[in-house]
Amino acid sequence: DQQVKQNSPSLSVQEGRISILNCDYTNSMFDYFLWYKKYPAEGPTFLISISSIKDKNEDGRFTVFLNKSAKHLSLHIVPSQPGDSAVYFCAASFFNAGNMLTFGGGTRLMVKP
Amino acid sequence: GAGVSQSPSNKVTEKGKDVELRCDPISGHTALYWYRQSLGQGLEFLIYFQGNSAPDKSGLPSDRFSAERTGGSVSTLTIQRTQQEDSAVYLCASSLVVGSNEKLFFGSGTQLSVL
User: Fold this and answer.
1) Which of A20, A24, A43, B78 could form a disulfide bond with B106, CB atoms 3.0-4.6 angstroms apart?
2) With contacts defined as CB-CB under 8 Å, which chain B residues touch A46?
């Protein structure tokens, strides 16, 4: 049973436009959510996170939105750049699990010049 | 080194052989994790170590998989009698503090191919 799901395996966006990546979760105990970005042949790198006490966190071009009632979060990238092309993983954890992250299946973002 | 180091970067083995994958975490990081990513799949948790506590092995897929962490630093993931379904990228990560939502730092992974 997948506790964290990314239902879109891929997304293609034009440079300069907004990219919206979505993530759904089922475990209501999750209280911390993260997005990781992964380039080929590299390990995932941390991008942005949000605590369950917030509904929005912004860092430059990246904003994460959390809707707890819907158990849904999204990552917005605006404006999108070709260098943003990568696989994006949503992850979740809860306090008693330490930092053990449960990951979604990933969404491959392609930003076209 | 500054980051998490994994070796080898690529490993090709024959079905039935044993393999060992190594991870050097970031110096001072007390928590160490192993994940794997099969082709087209997300990251699957395998095992984690925190300090001197007993490791959480709940993600290990079978008793052919084992891991140890010596001296609270370097970790080795061992897969015995490898099967073709073990083919995946094995990723190691470390973090500074457990339970404080510290982010994980990942290595580049070991691409394991079982023929």
Assistant:
1) A43
2) 103-105
A32 contacts B101? CB cut-off 8 A? yes
In terms of residue numbers, what domain contains A79?
4-112
pLDDT tens string A18-57: 999 999 999 999 999 999 999 988 999 999 999 999 999 9
Superfamily of domain B13-96: Immunoglobulins (2.60.40.10)
Task: Provide the domain count of chain A.
Answer: 1
Judge whether A20 and A74 are in contact, CB under 8 Å. yes
Alpha carbon of A59: minimum distance to chain B alpha carbons (Å): 16
